[in-house]
Amino acid sequence: MSNNQIGLPLNEAAKLADKLNILLANYQLFYANSRAIHWNIKGEKFFELHQKFEELYMDSFQKVDEIAERILTLGYTPLHTYSDYLKVAKIKEAANISEARESVQVVLDGYKTLLEIEREILDYSGELNDEGTNALMSDYIREQEKSVWMYSAFMK
């Protein structure tokens, strides 16, 4: 069996790239939803949530780039059209949401999906001894678990 340019078996690297493309697609929807609720939030929590949602979509923007670059590092092509993202993403578009609790629920639902995918990728990349992908997923999971705690506290 031959290996890719970073020493991972080609078949397994292809499967990993497919999983990362699914994560990429979900992040693109998470980013779009975060940006939309940032723009559209209204009410007494406007100032607090407007800023938090901006932080959220800026962080998502960064992660989209990191995931795409990891796919390229593995030797594969990242998905790059919204039609492709919509075909594979589990996260759905959140339209016309402006109320605080509903907006925060969109974030929590998105994190739930992202964490499930990231844990699956972490398990698989661990089997391959792919420390680059492991580190990325581990960092994302740690950050997002804390964010879930904080956004969940808002909902109580």
Characteristics:
mainly alpha, Ferritin, 5 helices
3D structure, described in words:
This protein is mainly alpha-helical. The chain has one domain: Ferritin, CATH 1.20.1260. 76% of the residues lie in helices and 0% in strands. It has five helices and no strands. The protein has helices spanning 10-40, 46-73, 82-88, 100-127, 131-155. α1 (10-40) packs across α3 (82-88), α1 (10-40) runs antiparallel to α4 (100-127) and α4 runs antiparallel to α5. The longest helix has 31 residues, at 10-40. The protein is elongated and about 60 Å long. It starts with 9 loop residues before the first helix and ends with a helix. The mean pLDDT is 97.
Overall, the morphology is: elongated
Specify the number of helices.
5
CATH C-level category:
Mainly Alpha
Number of structurally distinct domains: 1
* CATH architecture identity: Up-down Bundle
User: What is the ordering of alpha helices and beta strands?
Assistant: HHHHH
Portion of residues in beta strands equals under 5%
Task: Write a concise synopsis of the structure shown.
33% of the residues are buried. The protein is built from five helices and no strands. It has one domain: Ferritin.
Helix/strand layout:
Blueprint: H1 10-40, H2 46-73, H3 82-88, H4 100-127, H5 131-155
Helix pairs in contact: 1-2, 1-3, 1-4, 4-5
